[in-house]
Amino acid sequence: MKRALYWVVVAALAAFCLLPILWGVRTSLAPPLDRSLVPHRLTGEHYAKILARADFYRYVFNSTVVTLGAVVLVLPLALAAGYALGRHQFWGRRLAPVMLALPLLPAVTFLVPIARYLHTMGLYNTRTALILANAAFCLPFATWMVWNSVHAIPPSLEEAAFLDGCSRVQALVRVVLPSMIPGAIAAGVFVAIQSWSNYLFAFALTSDSEIRVLPHAIVEFIGLFSTDLGGLTAIGILALLPPLIVFQILQRWFVAGMYSVAGK
User: Fold this and answer.
1) H helical segments located in the chain
2) Residues forming a β-bridge with 222
3) Residues 6+ away with beta carbon under 8 Å from 3
């Protein structure tokens, strides 16, 4: 009975997560006026219309630049901060729990100050503004993920490197960093997915269509008097594919990093 109940719960959770995606795939492949549960025929016209639009590729390019920029900016800072928190004792370490609380706050609570600062610096309505905003939002949790992976690395490895004549920097580069790869990959995947799918910053910090990213562009398919459900679900599925592919490729290291498994 326990095993049966376990699989019932697993199936219910899987259905809860997968049914919206499956319904989106169904709607994106169904003819415009087909509202049946199982479409009478499948069509790729919604995808063809989106792929034929030149602005779609501009949106993808902008999203890619913002995502890669946030990952490149966050990872070195998270690695340095996570190592310092995991290996050194200093007064500021007491404030580490605050770092974990920041990602739990709604992003809208500090959206106005961020927009004001970026406008003052002349960065409003630029890709740089989106990169900085996403990086600032993702950095605390990414640091915690790296910090978590540092605890899985025995200090004796660094001590052995010191006995062999390595300086702290050499021990960090040769011993610690290779063992922190799972944590770094987990943090990178987290930052990439968050930056790719973030709509709030794109909506609040940009107004030029040339800077618009893919999540912001999806709103174009929601009309005032009607909604293009086929196009809306089709572009949603296309936006879902890159993070899904990245996660499938890196899921082994992502899980290892989340569970603090040191790299070999």
Assistant:
1) 2-29, 45-51, 54-87, 96-101, 111-120, 127-150, 155-163, 168-171, 177-179, 181-197, 200-205, 214-217, 229-258
2) 227
3) none
DSSP 220: G
| Per-residue pLDDT tens over the stretch 28-73 | 998 887 777 778 888 889 899 889 988 899 999 999 999 999 999 9
Q: Which residues contact 215 (CB under 8 A, 6 or more apart)?
A: 63, 196, 197, 198, 199, 202, 239
Residue 222 Ramachandran class (φ > 0 left, ψ -120 to 50 alpha, else beta):
beta
Tokens of 149: 């992976």
pTM greater than 0.90 (yes/no): no
Nearest CA among 194, 223, 237, 182 for reference residue 44: 237
- Longest Cα–Cα distance in the chain: 73
Neighbours of 101 (CB within 10 A): 9
Percent of residues, the chain, with pLDDT higher than 90: 25
